[in-house]
Each structure stands twice: as C-alpha cells, then as structure tokens.
C-alpha cells in the first residue's frame, strides 16, 4: 500500500458519517505525522463552561493580561492534558515548530507567558489530543472519513471554533451540505 503524504501542518476535517460521534464536525490541526504515527489537536469545538481563566486558576496563575478565551476540545486522548497552538513568535522549553505554520507547546510556561502579556501573539488552548499509531492515519485516509487541507492561519486564528468545519470545506470549494454521510450500492 502506498503511503499518504505526511500531513504535518495541515488540517483534517471529519466527513459526515465518520462513524465516531467524538469526531462529528471535527477540525484537527495535525502537529506531527510520520512513519511512527500522528498527533493532532482538535480546534473545531470548545468545552462548554470552561475558559482560560478557569484553567489558569487550577495552576494558581493570575490571568493578568490574558483574555478569558474558550478552551478547545483537543481530542479524546488524555483529556486533562493541555496544549497551546500558537504563533512562532514565542518559544518555551518544549515548543515544537509545526511545518513553519504554527508552534505547539504543552508545558505551563506558555500559560504563564500568556498571562503576563509576554507570550505568543496568537494562540489557542486545548485539552486532549487526537492520536494515531503507526500507519493508522495513513490507512484511515484511504477510506471515507477525513478530508485534508493546507494549514491556513485564518482558519486557525480568525475563525470561531464552531465555524471552522464549514469554512474549511468552503475554502476547498465544497459545500458541506451536499456531502453524503453514506454511499449507495448498485
């Protein structure tokens, strides 16, 4: 089987009828994808009733300059683990560059920097992640389920979480209302 191209720095949009309700209308920013597997952060939904200030309070960090931004549902894996997708104008002890499009940090230093007004200029916070083992995402991409598109910063930072799925398809020239959730048989 020929391997799909690596998708680091791109988005995956869940197709209608993906078969897993946790991923219905999901938009996932792929942060790493290689022969060992893939990891992505969900950016298409927020966690109701949870804002950044609530998260900062759990770490005894004063919100300071940080707006009370919504916290995203990053995915079903390790839902208590936090991640920040952010612009590349800031880096901390564990920050990784994601294909030159954005950066990913997963330690408390980025939250402190944001609260102090000295963090990245653009960011979003998520709890949990989506993960795939060796070859799993490549295999899933051969079936109905995921649509990938380039990592557009406007989609990531300038679009509300609830509108990212529809806008992502729209930017690809696809009206998602016309997508079928199942295929017919002949």
Automatic annotation (TrEMBL):
InterPro entries: AlgH-like
Protein name, per record: UPF0301 protein ABC974_02130
Tree of life domain: Bacteria
Pfam families: DUF179
Family affiliation: Belongs to the UPF0301 (AlgH) family.
PANTHER family: UNCHARACTERIZED PROTEIN YQGE, UPF0301 PROTEIN YQGE
HAMAP family: UPF0301
